[in-house]
Every structure is written in C-alpha cells, then in structure tokens.
Amino acid sequence: MTKTLNVELGDRSYPIYIGPACLGNDDLFSRHISSRKVMIVTNETVSPLYEAKLRAALKDFEVDCVVLPDGEQYKNWETLNLIFDALLQKKHSRKTTLIALGGGVVGDMTGFAAASYQRGVDFIQVPTTLLSQVDSSVGGKTGINHPLGKNMIGAFYQPNAVIIDTLTLNTLPPREVSAGLAEVIKYGLIRDADFFGWLEGNIQPLRQLDQASLTHAILTSCACKAAIVEEDETEGGVRAILNLGHTFGHAIETHQGYGNWLHGEAVGAGMVMAAQLSHSMQWLNDEALQRIVRVVEQSGLPIKGPSNMNEADYMALMSVDKKVLDGALRLVLLKRLGYALVTEEFSASALGDVLKTGGLQH
Amino acid sequence: MTKTLNVELGDRSYPIYIGPACLGNDDLFSRHISSRKVMIVTNETVSPLYEAKLRAALKDFEVDCVVLPDGEQYKNWETLNLIFDALLQKKHSRKTTLIALGGGVVGDMTGFAAASYQRGVDFIQVPTTLLSQVDSSVGGKTGINHPLGKNMIGAFYQPNAVIIDTLTLNTLPPREVSAGLAEVIKYGLIRDADFFGWLEGNIQPLRQLDQASLTHAILTSCACKAAIVEEDETEGGVRAILNLGHTFGHAIETHQGYGNWLHGEAVGAGMVMAAQLSHSMQWLNDEALQRIVRVVEQSGLPIKGPSNMNEADYMALMSVDKKVLDGALRLVLLKRLGYALVTEEFSASALGDVLKTGGLQH
Lengths: 362, 362
Description:
The structure is a homodimer. The first copy, chain A, is of the alpha/beta class. The first copy, chain A, has 14 helices and eleven strands.
C-alpha cells in the first residue's frame, strides 16, 4: 500500500513514503539512518499517541527523545534550545539523526535544529497532521518565530526522508482534517485541474479518512509541491504561487489572533477571495467560481472571512507584504482553474469589492 | 596593491580582496551588494575605530548598524538575537546585506545571523584581526556557543565577498598579531613547504606590520585553506588537517580557562607538540623540528604548554575528541614539513612523552 515519491533536488534529493502503517515499518527508517544514535523530537500531545510505535520501529538504534510543549506559541528559541540541550546532554555527535514526530511546529523546529546542530545533521520527518503531510513534507522550510515576526529565523534544509503514516490522521480532530484539506485543494487550483476534478468527487471519503483516498490526495499534493520546489528551491519566483489564498488568510489570522482561526480555515476563505477576484478579472467564469466555493464548503471550511473584518482591516494587514516587496501589492490569482500566477495587475476596485464582502458575493 | 583570491565553490564562489585601505574602497562593496539597505554588525571595540570609515564606503546605501559587546563570552544566542532584533526593528527584508566588521566572534555570529535571517540573506565579511583574516575568511563556518559546548549551533554559509584591509592590523595588540601568525605558520606546515621557507625569513617584517609581507602571508594562507575547503566543503575528510596543533591547543585553552591563553598561543604550543610527536615517529628529522620550533618562537608564541598541566590533564581533555569520533584518538601529524595527515597510528608512549614535557624536549 505504501507509495513513494522522490523529490529531486540534486544531492539533496529524498523520498517521501505515504501509506497506512508506515510508522511501524522499521525497514523504511533503517534505510535512511546512518548513525547509531537517534533523537526523536515530538510534543506532549503526539508523544502518548505515537512515540512507543516509533520507538518499536527504531529498535536497532540507541534512541533518545525530547518532548516539547504543544502549540505555535512555543515555536521559539527557548523551545528550540530544549532540543540542543538534549542533544548535548546525551552526547549526540555530528553523525546523529533527528526524527520529527508531530505536526508543522515540531517539523519546523526539528528541521532548524538539524540544520544548526554542529552545523548540520541528518533528519527524518514523520508528519502526523494532514496539513504538515501535504505542506511541510516538501520545500525544506524550517525555522522558528521571533517576537517581531513569524518564521523570521530559520534555514532551507532538506530531510533524508519523509515518512507519512496515513493512519495517524485517525487521531486528528476533524476540524484539523478540514484545515489540511484547504492546502490539498490549493494544489488542484494552482497547477492540477484534473486533481481538482478528482477532489470534487472525493471530499467525503477524505473527511471520513478513507486510506486509499488519503494516500492519493497526499501523494498528488506532495508531487505538485515537489514539481514547483524543484523549479525554485529558495523561493525566487514560481514558488510564490504556493501562497494562493495566503495573503488574505494571513490577514485573517493576524486580525483574529493566532489559533482562533486555524491556518487552513483562513486559507480556505482566502482562496475563495482570490477566486472571486480572479472571477472579477474575467479569468474564471461563473461555473469555475462556483465549483471552487463548493469544494471549499464541502471540506468543512469557511467560504468567507470573519464578520468583524472590514476592507480597511484587510488592507492594513495585507500591506505588510507590500512593504516587504518594496513595491505594489502582489497577489496570487487564478488565470484559470488549475493555473495560478503572481500578479500586481488587478483592479483595485474589484479587490475592494472582495474585501468588503469578505470573500463571497451573495 | 589590492590582491584578489577567488574561492571556488560552484554557485557559492566568492572573492577575497586583500590589501591596505580596502575598507575605504566603495567600489569593492558596491560590487557585492544588491540591496538598498545594509546592516553593519560590529562590536564596541571595533566600532570607534572603523565604523565611520566603513560607513563612508557605503554612502550609496541605507545603512543601519548594531554594536555588540566584545568577547567570546558573548558569542551566544542572546547576543545573536540583538542582530535579529535590529534587522526586524529596522524592517530589513530578505534582500538585505549584512556586513561583519570585526574579528572571529563578530564574523561567526554575523554569518550565522545571515544564514538564518528569513532563511538566508547576503553577507560580506570585513575581518579586522589577523586570526580572522587567515582563518574565518575561508570555510563558511558560522555559529554560536552553547553552554555545553563551543560552536555547537551554526551553519556552513558562504559570504558574498571578504574584504581584508591590512591596515586594520595597525590597531591590533601585538600579542594578537602573534596569535594570528600561529595559523599562518600552520598553513606552511600542513601543505606548503615553500611558504614555510618564506615565513622563516619574514617573521620580523610581519610582526612589524609590513603591508606587502602581510598581504602575501594572508593571501597565501587563504589560498591554502581555500584549496583544502574546495576539496571538502563540509569537513568530511581532508579538511581535518586544518586542526594541526588544535587538539593539544584546545586542551590547553580549556584547562587554562578561555581568554587566559589566546587561541593562537595554544595552537602555537600545540603545533610544537604535534611536530615533536611527528619527530618521535621519525617522520620529521632533527633539523625540521628545530626549524618549526624556531619560527613559532620568533613569532612571539609559546613553544610549550602551561607549566601547571600534566599528562593526565591533557589526556582527559583530549579524549573529548575521542568520544566524538566513536573510536581511537586521532591526531593531525606531519608526515614531513609541508604535509600533514590525520592518523590514529602513533606510539602511545611517544605521545605520553610529549605530554609529560608539555611540548618541547630540552
């Protein structure tokens, strides 16, 4: 049942294994660990669920484990340092291997710890949330937050392998499954109209955690992201289309306070807003817009932003991106269903209309 | 008068400029800065001496500056974070350029800040000590200390350019000039017998800061290190010979407490110890050993370790390396004058004799 996708990045290439029960497959791990010692990094939520299973698959190695507090608010230097403390106290050398067991926060921090410990050691990702499986498995983005900005400190650093056990989604809250689906839908919208068509018929099996459907959706999402990242490893150009819905979404997350809207929920509403603006530009027709809205809605995601945000709120928060780019506001829009581009050529009044209605014209 | 050395590392290649008054050469800087904003990182000792001169060379850019406390004890996360704070407060984007103005500590921290800020920005090294000019200009090692170990957190990250103004050595304490010469001598010993011969006739002009002699010595040292690093960028093999004298030297530094013996002083005594052990192995003859001792001594460096260290002290501190390598103690020794190798094949009793006498048999 396990599918394999190779991410081709020259001497930084690595495989992603996807399927039910991968976590118990000791051969998958052994194949990618050249050290005697390994350090599992997980958090207090995931540890009771999956640490013992992972340790069983690592029976041939000397295993240490560090359990971090759970939550985006802990994605900081102090928590990262718990990993360094454990590595040094347990005398892990440059030859050690770190294994990230958890969601995006654990993966980002473990990846940055691996990039920085003794100037770089091996690491393996074992993402246990749908969002991290389809988003963090490819791209090599690692890092921590700074009080003055999210993900401001980090590295581009590739894992030795990513091992995705689709059965771990059985313990994921349904709201987080929906949030993960936002990123899955995104891949269909930006580069793969066929996949979008498949999703239209398979949202229910996905939400019900049908293993074959999940494996297909995760594999296709990772393959789509891999194709984009292979083209643009350090985010100079095309990679920006991965941010479809994210400029709107970040504004929502910031305005509401992190954690109140899940990232995927904000991206869901943001993608509808991007689709609506693309429709105003006459790039998407009525039918395409309706299909997009329907899939987002069926996934259990919001199709418009929070009712307490107005146009000025959006513009203030979105213009942070503007400053960073030393110029005009650039957005990811859909030239057609299955093809996104980054552009600053859109009608300001159409954008205003989208922001006024918060995403969906009734 | 300015000489240029290109360090060839594929798409991470960069030039090193060496000569008097480079710091005032605005063209050298402009050539390697593609941003509008730059951030100078320096320390409280170097800032009053050279910040104004550097700012004058950067008159075409928007310049911010962060001044760190001076000293190895500040090479930690808290100080590194002062750089991130300044970058974020002054709204520096991913397109910014950091300029490290100072010695090894400033260079290591600025390099790691550049490697990590928004997952990597440009940086230029302007090393102002002889040690950092010949040691940190090549190799891409950046990082900070952790309470449990030196340089434990960092990255391999290459600068856009290194600009070495040999006139900055005029303000360097003579003891630090001598300490820098230890690393210069090292390059002659490990890979370049001709350069060693040249050094034998030029130690006095170097200590008197003759600009042409300094330029030649720094250029040759950087070229030697570049050839080794080009062969082994991430320290898998041959690069270890750069540690000639360092295993003994680190033991001395640790035993005496950092700062009491300068790094270069400990390396000076350590190189004599390595030479003496190589002599015991009959790899070096009497004359070669004497030539090495003489050059180290003429440089104003100690030719034996501290009188309060005995064999057991050395062995206890040197065996840290042993643990790290999961095996026998490995040392860098001289197969002949101008050719070093890493080996665990030496007589334990000969090593014992060297450690008993602390470096030089009388």
